[in-house]
Amino acid sequence: MARVYVSSVIPAEASRxxxxxxxxxxxxxxxxxxxxxxxxxxLPSDKIGCIRSFHLQSGDNIRExxxxxxxxxxxxxxxxLDGPQPWSDYMATLRLTPVTDTGHCFAEWSAEFSCxxxxxxxxxxxxxxxxxxGGFDALKRxxxx
Amino acid sequence: xxxxxxxxxxxxxxxxxxxxxxDFNGHDRWHPVVATSQVERGRxxxxxxxxxxxxxxxxxxxxxxxLTLSDAEMSMTYCxxxxxxxxxxxxxxxxxxxxxxxxxxxxxxxxxxxxxxxREAELGAAVGDGIYVAGFEAIRTELGA
Lengths: 145, 145
Fold this sequence. Notes:
Chain A is built from 3 helices and 7 strands; from the N terminus they run βααββββββα.
């Protein structure tokens, strides 16, 4: 299994950052690489098992399914069902933890997937930089970091 | 049951912080409230099950046992065995994580314990601020972080 791990510190209370990212259908509102998103079958976006279908700015369509969410531990876990990347068994978790002495938020985004070993390095680097760090950079900008 | 959580970000690589923190018997060298410490029965400091017997600067003697030590997760769990301070069923957990976009360290330190009714806030602050935050600050100073 290939593994990607990216983490950052967002200069805002974890509860405020969570409010911004919790909605499984909200990627276009906070992630610059996502153009649009909808939840299939008119399900609520916090129903475990719901599927978001979204487009990247490049036009590629991706479908992901919510498999875990916690308002207590502040994490969301999802699997990818369809997408342009040459990988399988892709599962990712985005997790927030309060930094108690500053009132800021430690954010971790990790994923595991299977792929051809020749593609692994590019997929790990690309996902970590463009998707995960790109999302954190947008959150840091939004919250004034 | 009282739940104490403190966390911070140190401007130092996670490996440098872990090298200090993972030494279960090393706290008398860096923590300001610990005067002396020794591991009982000839065990080594990173042996799961090891018991450290230590004396605080205020004179109290305590014994704690190492329950979990993971270099892979950079985490450790330990419990109090004997204490003159009424911290009952005390189990503490330390976890370090890299902040990958800054070469910094996120340090999460938490515990749960029972204590006589009416002393929850006092002992919660004594543990959280007197031990955990004081420990953060000591390592921050030691590493210039």
